[in-house]
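Quick question: what would this complex look like in 3D?
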Amino acid sequence: MAVSNSRPEPTAEDIKTYYRDMLLIRRFEEKAGQLYGMGLIGGFCHLYIGQEAVVTGIQAVQEPQDTVVTAYRDHGHMLACGMDAKGVMAELTGRSTGYSRGKGGSMHMFSREKKFFGGHGIVGASASIGTGLGFAHKYNEDGGVAVAYMGDGASNQGQFYECLNMAALWKLPVLYVIENNKYGMGTSQERHAAGQLYKRGDGYGVPGEQVDGMDVFAVREAARQAFDYIRSGKGPYLLEMSTYRYRGHSMSDPAKYRSKEEVQKEKEERDPIERLKALLPAYKISDDDLKAIDKDIKQIVNEAAEFAMESPEPHVDELWTDVLIPVKE
Amino acid sequence: MSVNILMPALSPTMTEGTLSKWVKKEGDAVKAGDVIAEIETDKATMEVEAVDEGVIGKLLVAEGAENVAVNTPIAVLLEDGESAADVNIAPVSGGSASKGATSDDAAPMAACSLPRAEPKGDVGGSALYSGSAGGFVEGQRIENREILVAQGHILPPPVFDETGFAATVETMTVREALRNAMAEEMRRDEAIYLMGEEVAEYNGAYKVSQGLLDEFGAKRVIDTPITEHGFAGLAVGSAFQGLKPIVEFMTMNFAMQAIDHIINSAAKTLYMAGGQLGCPIVFRGPNGAASRVGAQHSQCYASWYAHVPGLKVVAPWSAADAKGLMKAAIRDPNPVVILENEIMYGQSFECPTDEDFVIPIGRAKIEREGKDVTLVAFSIMVGKALEAAKKLEEDGIDAEVINLRSIRPLDTYTLLQSLKKTNRMVTIEEGWAFSGIGAEIAALMMAHGFDDLDAPIERVHSADVPLPYAANLEALALPQVDEIVHKAKKVCYAA
């Protein structure tokens, strides 16, 4: 295991920022779970609770020109990219004000403005699309890096290796992030993956590192070093984030494949938000400071839920739009 | 303020459940994430977690209660300082879960901006073909054509004056026409690049990309490893960022490894993104049977791709088709599949040299005018249909031959106009019959041209077997001129 040792000291401002970013994701997801329970969100809904430190730490050291793509557990990534909670929640409820006008749903949202390229429901697709985003960064010489997130389950898809090969051959600026939450749906890592995931790039000469994905500062520093490597023109880099999802694979997953004790232990010992809170006294951050943030987040999430419930469903004409871009005759 | 905790829906299909166990009791403090109850759904036993912080004021549903409807209040959560006595425990109707009103004017997005590549469609309903194409006349420019076609309207094809390009032509092979089209477009637009197996240093497995590496360099003409799924997905990702990839598959048979990205990533994303994220990409390569290469290298994929909304599919026959359709595909802001044909690559035709010779996608060409029977074909089968028409002429039957050029969108209008004239139709394709292009055309003609039909439509197609290797069996399996002649006579009741 190659965990980074040299980490710049966090500042009080960092702690407050990441606390806020992670809490926004957690509270948003809890609210999404609640709206799902009320029947306001349909279909599949994959919550990111427990994994907040991964996107928060990586986003913290991205450059504005960088692009992001992920799979279907994507709400956290959208919020981290700066997409508006209202637009995300309204898409979850299938309303006209959602990021995809209600036509994409939980797994399919995009924001060209925020450089978030989805939101893909096919496991493994984000590896290839992310490699293509990296290809475009290099083609356009814009200095950007593509961050391609995938789960531990997706890391077994063949297209991931096809893309590691091309990205390494052509030295594409791509950061592959395997969010290893230990289960590909209900199949544990022990049962689905031979060997270590962070070594999966070895055959292609793509360096890999295993990182404590429940520690936002460990994530940030690993990502910083990976970005430095990639931006120096050396090609892609792979980070395996050791993390954990508290909820089931989707809302309808009773998660019988793991014990309550295991979940409880992760929550008690590794929770990314609680670990950040433990740093507060040393940085002289008061409970009142946090309470102000909590209140703020609660308001953002409640407003997002209100917006998502009050917005109208898409106009019936929207059934037909956006299949093809019209061509001028 | 107190909050009602409602019976949650824990799966997309759950409408009611059994409250099998209360984990918390009245008076217990809970924080977000605490398990408060267990519920048996239609699928499994699930835990219900608290979303808000507070104290359980009252349990409204007894442990063991069955058939508790989703959204029934099951408990009351008190906030700091409240007591159960303060709270009015009237059950809350499911009204809080009712959907927002559908409005004719969607509220403007207050939260985020959604730039879209096109205007909103405002057409509803679907009109049957009446011969006047729903009020549209030939030569008229039509807005929202894509939407109208999707809704089942039969529209005159896009305007195109092909004769205007006949003044300056050059004889060239289909291969050269394809290459010239790519080169001309790559000179116009730096965002276009060509990617595929053997396209660069080898000059193309079938020499279609001959010379392109020399002219455009390795940045824009890229040899890939043999890795179709990966490079198709990579190209799609780059197109999302605004590049315009031309993805060559050594044959369309190999594109089956990549079809997930062609359909799930390229064709569907614009819709799933509410119009924000287009995918300007061309997927191309030889399609259908070559010669004696067996079942795995010989399939026609026309009906596979034509099935999918969000894709356009074209199939050139002549050099002019190849050049004009390739240029249209590259300039199109949507994903386009070009089904080429290996046997046609080496055949020569006169081809317009004008750089603006761009054939509109969705417009068929009448290759031979006739009055007795309409032969509808695409790709290599256009040549066979023309040969059949010659033979039919000897027997006094005057066949009209339509070269579809585009499979999706299909120029149904031109087919119906021809049927109105000939009252008889034979479709010809290299693919299998089941769910094939001929089946679709027959259905459309029946629906919109029933009164014009004097005989059931006949279909010429490959035998319903994987393509055999042996020369005699291969010839038996593939559509031949004699069979076209036979079926044309049959619909003319002259057989």
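Answer marked as accepted. The mean pLDDT of chain A is 95.
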